[in-house]
Design a protein that fits this description.
Elements lengths: L21 H18 L2 H7 E9 L10 E4 L1 H12 L14 E5 L2 E6 L2 E8 L2 E8 L1
Parallel strand pairs: 1-6
Antiparallel strand pairs: 1-2, 3-4, 4-5, 5-6
């Protein structure tokens, strides 16, 4: 069955670290995303990304007009299955040097050229956006 036709896995229970304060939860979310990307773990990825999340590939330019955007958890999971799992990213070095800014139930972080956005809902943190 083509990866794009594979049903979206039902999310597992939230990882315990997702309920920690932002300073602890956000680096753990980024590390878990990278680890799941490397292992091909769609169910774990489904527990990390908010339902309305998105990934933005800037294609190496400052012009947003040529950006490629995956919108929604299902599209993100398809992206992993089709584009990421066949050529997984390298591991991240720990501890992460995330530059975190948190305000209320929203947070942002940068790691190199990656820009992350997070949202706190239902008592836990979620990945909301990755732009690279």
């Amino acid at each position: 069955m083509p990866a794009s036709l594979v049903p979206t896995p039902f999310p597992l229970p939230a990882p315990a670290f997702a309920a920690l304060p932002a300073a602890d939860a956000l680096p753990a979310l980024v590390l878990a995303e990278r680890d799941a990307s490397r292992r091909g773990d769609l169910p774990l990825l489904a527990t990390l990304w908010a339902a309305d999340a998105r990934i933005v590939d800037s294609r190496g330019t400052a012009d947003p007009g040529d950006d490629y955007v995956w919108q929604g958890r299902n599209a993100l999971l398809d992206r992993y299955a089709i584009a990421v799992f066949p050529a997984p990213p390298p591991p991240l070095e720990e501890p992460l040097a995330l530059d975190i800014t948190a305000s209320g139930d929203m947070a942002t972080a940068t790691l190199g050229v990656d820009r992350w956005r997070f949202v706190q809902r239902d008592g836990r943190w979620w990945l909301l956006e990755l732009a690279y």
